[in-house]
Amino acid sequence: MSYRLPLVALSVVIAIVAGTASLWIGTWVRSIAATVGAAIVMGIAVTGMHYTGMAALQVKGGLMPTMGVNGVAAASGVSGATAATFLIPLLLVISLATFLLTLSISMTPSEDEIRADAEMLRRLNYLEQRGTPNPEG
Predict the structure, then answer these.
(1) What is the pTM assigned to this prediction?
(2) Maximum distance among all Cα pairs of the chain, rounded to whole angstroms
(3) CA–CA distance, 71 with 17 (Å, rounded to integer)
(4) At what angle do helices 32-56 and 5-26 cross, to 10 degrees?
(5) CA 92 to CA 102: how far, in whole Å?
(6) Mean pLDDT across the stretch 72-84?
(7) How high is the pLDDT of residue 80?
(8) Residue 34 contacts residue 25 (beta carbons within 8 Å)
(9) Closest Cα partner for 41 from 62, 22, 20, 64?
(10) In angstroms, rounded to a whole number, what is the distance separating the alpha carbons of residues 121 and 108?
């Protein structure tokens, strides 16, 4: 296996540019159209990067080593991790990170809540500056 470096570099550039563009579009949270646009640009980023990276890979034919019972080359004595020892911790970490990010985003105040808080503070400051009369006289 070998890689064509210009296509690998192009794959990285596509990932960075299109990914950044989709995140930038995603900051326009005022409409569904912006969200759909960001999703489309992110889809282009992922597929563009993937297929460009795959086009960079060159595979040449040759003899394959004999595979052992666990999918490890028997003749070479090479050992390695199984799919489960790699994927299960990875999926747990990704799931935990996704949960924590979703939790933090859901706890963040919306624009309307921030605006309402600012209005309340403005009114409280107005009342303090004006001086509230004492009801007891």
Answers:
(1) 0.43
(2) 100
(3) 38
(4) 170
(5) 15
(6) 61
(7) 67
(8) yes
(9) 22
(10) 19
